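Researcher: Next entry: Peptide ABC transporter permease (Streptomyces violascens).
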Amino acid sequence: MSEALLTTGAGVVAPAPGGRLFWRRLRAQRAVTAAAAVFVLLVLVALAAPLLTALEGQDPNAFHPTLVDSASGGVPIGPFGGISGEHWLGVEPQTGRDLFARIVYGARVSLGVAFVATLIQVALGVALGLFAALGGRWADQIVSRVTDVAAALPMLVITLGLLAVAPASIPRPVLITLIIAGLGWFGTSKIVRAGALSLKTLDHVSAARLSGWGTWAIARRELLPALAAPVITYAVLLVPTNVVAEAALSFLGVGIKPPTPSWGQMLTDANTWYQAAPTYLLLPAGLLFITVLSLTVIGEGVRTALDPRAASRLRVGTRKGLKSRKPLRQSPRKSLKEKAS
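Model: Predicted structure:
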C-alpha cells in the first residue's frame, strides 16, 4: 500500500471519524467483517494451541516413525497424509510428527513475530517522524537522509547477513522480530513526518504554541490524535507484510530453526514432498494465504472507514464510480440553440 493514499490530496492528514462512526463504516463492509472473523479465529487457534493439542493428545515435537513408510522414503501411511482420529490433519513425512500440532504452534510463532515487529516498527517510526518534523532543520535533514538510505537498502540481503553473523544464544524468533522491525520502520516515519509538518502550520497548533505549550506537549495533545488514522491504517497493512517476511526467511532456511515450528519452515520441509504428501504443503501454504488475504482486506477496510474519500478516489474510472456521478446540467442557452437547430 502506497503511503500517498494515507493523506489527502492537499497533503493534510484527514481527521479521524468518531469511534461509533468508524465502527459503523467498518461493519458496513461485508468483506471486512468476514475477513475479521477469519483472522480472529486464527488468533484464537494460535492462543489456544496448548489446549487444542492436549485435546488431540499429541505433542508437536513427538516423533512417530511407525506412521511413515520407510520403504518409500518416509511417506505417511494412510489416506490424505495419514489423517486419522488421533492425527486430525495427518503426520509429517519422514518424522511422523503430528501436523495439526505443528500448524497451531507454528501460527503462534508466525503471528507473534509479525505483531511484535509491527508494534516496534510503529513506535520507531512515530518517534523518528515526530523528531524530524519538530526537532528543527538539522534533525529533519538527518532523519530524512537516514530514512532515504534505509528505504533504498536491499532488505533481504541485509537480513540474511545479520542472521548469519548473529550469536546463536539469541532466540531465533526474538532475533527475527528485531531485524524485521529494525529494517521496516521508515514507512511509518515518512507518514508521520509528512503529517506533522502539515499539521503544525494549522491555527490550533499555532495557538497552543503561543499559549506556552512545549514541543512534545503539542505533539502529544495536538499532533498524535490527528495522526492516529493514517498510522493505524499503515500498521494494519504492515502486519501481513511482516507475516510474509517471516515466512520467506524461514522458507530460505535462515529463519525459525527446528524444532520450533513455523509456517515458513514447514513450507521449506514440504518442498520435496508436494507429490507424495500434498497436504503437507497445502495446509501451511493455504493458512498463510488466508492470513495475508484477511489482513489485507481488514487494512483496506480500516483505511476506507477512516477516510471515506479514499473509497471514492478508488472508484474513479470504474463502472460503479461512473454510475454514481451525476450528469452535468446543460445551460439554458445551449439547450435553446439545440432546439432551434
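Model: Note for the record: The longest strand covers residues 68-69.
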